Amino acid sequence: MQKVELDRFQTSGILGSGADYEVRAAVDQETGKQVVLKRPVPQMISRGMHISTEERTDRTLQVLEQMGDATENIIPIVGYTERGNHDTFYGDSLGQEYTVIVEERAKGIPLMVGDMRARITGVPVGVGQNLFALHPLVRPPDSAQFPVQEQLLKIEES
Question: Is the pTM for the entire model greater than 0.85?
């Protein structure tokens, strides 16, 4: 894990926003790989209320640094920025300093697949149904291990 400069990445849009972070899709122009850029939620940054998120970010980076590649179930972090004002890169005027985490982009099925309300509102209201469809209680013995996931991934990637 290394410190990186944001000008190395070309963003392609916002993927979502949670309680702590806004997540944007990007491409690493040095490697050509798809990544995500995670920064504290802009509304929190502009109000100077992102300090607790910054502290969690610092602790997360410390733990992941200590773990190294010990687990394969955590998305690898490509790097992180120096804490600073990133208004120019993001095209906003928040006027605060914060850290941006750069992670490899996870492959998988978006939580909003198959639910039109979720696509409109941006809230994954169909998560329960999606998880039930993806993890059936009983799998026929002659079926593939993850048949629904494979079908959805093919659709998403096309």
Answer: no
